[in-house]
Each structure stands twice: as C-alpha cells, then as structure tokens.
C-alpha cells in the first residue's frame, strides 16, 4: 500500500500554521518549479527537494520575523521568492521582493498575481542601493538568503531599516572570522548582533544558520555607497 504523504500536515504542525496556508505555499512552489523550466529562478527542480530546501528553509526564520517590529518587510536578492513569499504568506506582512534581474521580477509578479496575493506582495526590479535611495528607513525587517557576506549585508540593510528594524540573514556556513568582522562593524554601520541560531532541516543532512542584526543609531559613514561597493570593496 502506498505510504500517505503527510508533509503538509507535518509542516502545519511544526510551524503552527493552518493546512490551507501550507497548501498555498506548496502551490507557490509548484508554480515556481514550472516557471523555472523557462527562466532560471532556482536550482531546485522537484517538489520533494523544494519542500525542504525552499519552503521549510524559508519558514525556519518565521520566529525571527515575528520578533521584528511590525511594519514593511523586504526580501533582498529574492531570486525565486524564497524566503520572501513563504514568510509573507504566513505572517500577513506587506512584502517587497527585491531582485536586480528584471526577468526574474517579471516572472515573480506573474506568479504572485496567479496566487491572488498581489495586494500584499509586490516586486522591485533594481539594485538594493537604488532602493535605499528611494525608500530610506522605510523597512521594519529585511531578509537575505545566501546572498553575500554578513558585513556586506549589514551595509546594504542599514540605510533601508528604520530604528530597531531587523536584518535576518539565512546562511549555510559562516566562518568565525566572518561573524567577528561583522560584529566589529557595529558602530560603523549602526547594526548590532541580536541572535545567532543553528539548526538542521528535516532531511537530517542540511544545516542552516540564522543570524539577526538590529539597526541602532546611525552609521558613521554615508550610506548607501555607490552601487556594488558593498560587495566589491567591503568594509
């Protein structure tokens, strides 16, 4: 007899969600996998791997998102919309998906419309530094998954965040030196470390780490720097 697929119920129970919300998350994942056949949005091509490496991984930061101040949320370098769309759907926050690759943004906009959630999830096709000039200090919380070094992410996030706003960094591996360097930039970037959590996904193999910084005060240098500088010439 074929084994019953209990993933939806299991995830609903793990993260305290209703089954309908998890089914909507899975519907989003399936649409992204389909779009990915035409546009390179993700390396994950199957429902089984996507459930763990996209949906479960995205939801892993839900607790950190809930601990952030109420207000506008943006997912930086969103790619296929992870963790941005899952976190938007489970939190109900107004969300902006940010990516510099315009064809990715166009594809995400279409999928969001198909899901009927375009009233609370919108997209921005441009560089993070450009967004910081347009919406300085407007965001309560930001996420970035496997996007750049911690120090570069802090620099990109600082001008976007309101006071007490939070940057949630999803990482696979972090060298001690990377974290130490990021912490040392507290005064320069007005970003302090508030939490650091490691865990394993349900596949029993994939390890993850979520590091959170909070905007406190004002940076000692003018931000944003020129486009690309945060990553090409990090502080």
UniProtKB/TrEMBL annotation:
UniProt family annotation: Belongs to the methyltransferase superfamily. RNA methyltransferase RsmG family.
Species: Raoultibacter massiliensis
Keyword Metal-binding appears in the UniProt entry: no
Cited InterPro entries: rRNA_ssu_MeTfrase_G (IPR003682), SAM-dependent_MTases_sf (IPR029063)
Subcellular location: Cytoplasm
One GO term (biological process): methylation
Entry annotated with the keyword Transferase: yes
Keywords (A to Z) from UniProt: Cytoplasm, Methyltransferase, rRNA processing, S-adenosyl-L-methionine, Transferase
Name of the protein this chain belongs to: Ribosomal RNA small subunit methyltransferase G
Originating gene: rsmG
Binding site for S-adenosyl-L-methionine: 77, 82, 128-129, 145
Enzyme Commission (EC) number: 2.1.1.-
Domain of life, per lineage: Bacteria
Upper lineage: Bacteria, Bacillati, Actinomycetota, Coriobacteriia, Eggerthellales
Entries under Gene3D superfamilies matching the protein: Vaccinia Virus protein VP39 (3.40.50.150)
GO molecular-function terms, A-Z: methyltransferase activity
Cross-referenced Pfam families: GidB (PF02527)
Function: Specifically methylates the N7 position of a guanine in 16S rRNA.
């Amino acid at each position: 007899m074929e084994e019953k697929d209990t993933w939806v119920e299991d995830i609903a129970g793990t993260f305290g969600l209703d089954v309908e919300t998890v089914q909507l998350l899975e519907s989003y994942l399936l649409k992204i996998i389909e779009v990915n056949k035409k546009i390179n949005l993700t390396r994950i091509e199957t429902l089984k791997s996507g459930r763990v490496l996209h949906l479960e991984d995205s939801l892993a930061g839900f607790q950190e998102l809930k601990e952030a101040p109420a207000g506008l949320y943006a997912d930086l370098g969103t790619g296929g919309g992870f963790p941005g769309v899952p976190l938007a759907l489970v939190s109900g926050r107004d969300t902006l998906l940010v990516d510099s690759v315009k064809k990715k943004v166009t594809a995400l906009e279409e999928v969001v419309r198909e899901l009927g959630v375009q009233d609370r999830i919108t997209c921005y096709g441009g560089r993070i530094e450009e967004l910081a000039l347009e919406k300085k200090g407007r965001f309560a919380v930001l996420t970035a998954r496997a996007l750049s070094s911690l120090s570069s992410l802090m620099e990109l996030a600082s001008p976007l965040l309101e006071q007490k706003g939070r940057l949630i960094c999803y990482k696979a591996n972090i060298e001690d030196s990377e974290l130490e360097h990021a912490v040392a930039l507290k005064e320069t970037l007005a970003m302090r470390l508030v939490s650091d959590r490691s865990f394993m996904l349900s596949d029993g193999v994939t390890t993850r780490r979520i590091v959170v910084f909070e905007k406190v005060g004002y940076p000692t240098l003018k931000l944003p720097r020129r486009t690309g500088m945060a990553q090409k010439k990090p502080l």
